[in-house]
Design goal:
By secondary structure, the chain is α+β, with helices and mostly antiparallel strands. The protein is built from twelve helices and 19 strands. The model has no long low-confidence stretch (mean pLDDT about 85).
Length: about 425
């Protein structure tokens, strides 16, 4: 620290904090200071990161809550804490994950909370949410207002909301504090609304696309939060039903590990993808690499499991449109169409042409079979035929025994799978037309 040695940590595998001595603190001077560290990797992956932390003693006198239970479901995560004589249940709910309502892409969720007294006595409990806006966003500006019986707080892209009646709000040194007393009058329960203002808009071949939820171009995040807040209990009840349904289905198909993988994959998909509206009112779904065929292919099984054919189409729509609008003039589909937030050209250096063509054919088959309707494939039939012809051309003149095909040449495996999907499409075309 400023040229003087402070301490040596030794071998460590975990993040640790060490308290600086009074002598070390005395080395901190006004103006510029220099803190340096050195780490030696003795083998395997390694990361060196360090910094200074000031202990916050605001809640140092409070007793620690005991976490008793965590239950992760498709649309919710349930936590149960023991807090003295009362049990606190906190549920994080993402209603946009449900297929029941038209809430795809809504950047709003909520945190519901409720207390139960194990001693059967009446308790008055205060629940408090303390959010450090400067730590999260590096900004101190905070806006607060009351609208339609809801109190809102906003800083940067984060929106928070609580019922205005019976709640209090304060702001001290960039800390937003929202609190509510839970008692018999309010059923010993409440809700915190959480909204996310979107950052950059996605540009698709020169056009700025609107978020799917804001299709009339006049909506605001706070409006969505009010809509969710006014019916949060009903939304939660429906999410409970759907979580039970999907959980049971997952256990019917596989074991606990399979169920956990399916539920987490579903949640990860929505957290890493954005839904926007094209100029002709089609739903587009993008990850960070826009129109990534490989990523779409990996996500299809979990979306099919949860019957999200609408999201499956949203992944493929921008790829089909990119090819059909003649932005792409090759015999195979692009592996991607850009990097967030601009869709303009393929980012991946290797075309992976056989893989992209086969994946698009196989994913289209999955949609047709799920809907038992050929109309989606019919819309894009010319390009599906073009990609199948490309795979057939790649196969011509190359004859390998099956054992070599499966062991050594993945491109040929993809060609075979793609052509099998194309022949399946021809059968489905005859069956559904």
């Amino acid at each position: 620290w400023n040229g003087d040695f402070l301490f040596e940590e030794g071998i460590t595998y975990q993040t640790k904090c060490g308290r600086l001595t009074d002598e070390a603190i005395a080395h901190i001077g006004n103006g510029t200071n220099v803190l340096a560290a050195y780490g030696r990797n003795t083998g395997g992956p390694a990361l060196l990161d360090f910094g200074l932390y000031i202990e916050n003693k605001t809640y140092s006198e409070a007793d620690m809550a005991l976490l008793k239970q965590i239950d992760v479901q498709a649309t919710q995560t349930h936590y149960v804490f023991q807090c003295g004589d009362v049990e606190l249940q906190i549920d994080f709910v993402s209603p946009s994950l449900s297929e029941k309502w038209n809430m795809t892409g809504w950047p709003v969720g909520f945190l519901s909370y409720q207390v139960h007294a194990e001693d059967k006595k009446e308790h008055t409990v205060e629940i408090l949410f303390d959010v450090d806006m400067e730590w999260m966003f590096g900004r101190r500006k905070i806006d607060s207002w009351v609208e339609q019986e809801w109190r809102f707080v906003k800083s940067d892209s984060l929106y928070l909301g609580m019922t205005a009646d019976g709640t209090s709000f304060s702001c001290d040194d960039s800390h937003v504090v929202l609190s509510q007393k839970l008692c018999a009058e309010n059923g010993n329960k409440g809700v915190l609304l959480i909204g996310n203002g979107e950052g950059q808009r996605i540009h698709y071949v020169g056009e700025c696309l609107q978020p799917l939820w804001n299709n009339n171009r006049t909506g605001e995040v706070k409006d969505l939060m009010i809509a969710v807040g006014n019916r949060y209990q009903k939304l939660k009840e429906e999410c409970n039903k759907l979580d039970n349904l999907w959980n049971n289905k997952a256990f019917q198909v596989g074991d606990k590990t399979y169920a956990e993988q399916m539920l987490s994959s579903y949640r990860n998909f929505i957290s890493s993808h954005r839904f926007v509206l094209s100029s002709d009112n089609k739903s587009f779904c993008f990850g960070d690499t826009l129109g990534n065929v490989g990523e779409a292919y990996k996500n299809f099984p979990v979306l099919l499991f949860f019957n999200r054919v609408d999201w499956m189409k949203s992944l493929l729509n921008p790829i089909f449109e990119y090819c059909e609008d003649e932005h792409w003039k090759r015999k195979y589909p692009p592996y991607d169409i850009g990097l967030y937030p601009v869709a303009s050209k393929q980012i991946k250096v290797d075309n992976c042409a056989e893989e992209a063509a086969a994946n698009m054919l196989m994913m289209t088959v999955a949609i047709v079979e799920a809907e038992q309707d050929f109309s989606y494939a019919e819309l894009h039939w010319s390009h599906l035929c073009l990609w199948a012809n490309y795979l057939e051309e790649k196969m011509e003149g190359e004859v390998l025994p099956s054992i070599e095909l499966l062991d050594a040449n993945d491109k040929r495996v993809k060609c075979v799978l793609g052509l099998m999907a194309y022949h399946k499409l021809i059968q489905l075309k005859d069956a559904y037309e």
